[in-house]
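Researcher: Structure prediction, please.
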Amino acid sequence: MPTAVVESRRILGTRVDATSYDGATRKILAWAAEGRSCYVCLAAVNNIMEARRSSAYKAVMEQAELVTSDGMPLVWTLRSLGVNDASRVYGPDLMPAVLEAAAAAGIPVGFYGGSEMVLARLLAVVRRRFPAIHIAFAKAPPFRPLTPEEDEHTIAAIQDSGARILFVGLGSPKQDRWMYAHTARIPAVMLGVGAAFDFVAGAKPQAPLWMQRHGLEWSFRLATEPGRLWRRYLKQNPRFLILATAQILRAQFLHHRTP
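Model: Predicted structure follows.
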């Protein structure tokens, strides 16, 4: 399956790829058909700021086969840096697109993350929406670090299942670090889709489309989960705005100075 070259920019030093739902899905299916072990990060402001803070996490992002713009602030930044057709590739929308394509291509998929209740609801929704889908693996890990023995058992179970696309819903940045640590050991394309498990399962409400399109989803999520998300949004978002604006202004200044 042919895949197009993806244009990229560095936002505060971290690579973000200007792809689309169709483009990302095509690449993921092609890699899965090849049997490649790799991972896809869906980046929002929090990922960029964490990569700026942590060189170890930045290395995780750098090794991703694809880094999509999961949040509208990254889309707007990409456009301001010269990628005029940049669009959002959001986990809760990318996951159904990939599932539909995998079902049509007969590629087995797996799910790793969420709670047992959410995972059960998610599997029921997926089977109802995509009757031809082959779910080869599904596991909700405990909310604690796995022991080495538990981790080895999980890896072996995924390997034995034959899953070639693995949706990972551990929350970011935890899921990105997990995918990085398991690359080459898990023969699948891993997608860190975060809250997509909850949203697709209907376990948590999603922001209205108008809020998503105007970059206000963060305020909806903050209102529904203030205790968990207030540090992420109220601390990181203003800092990102200042730093990204400075980067855009520098880029525009240098562009105008170039003969």
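Model: The chain has one domain: 7-213.
Researcher: Thanks, that helps.
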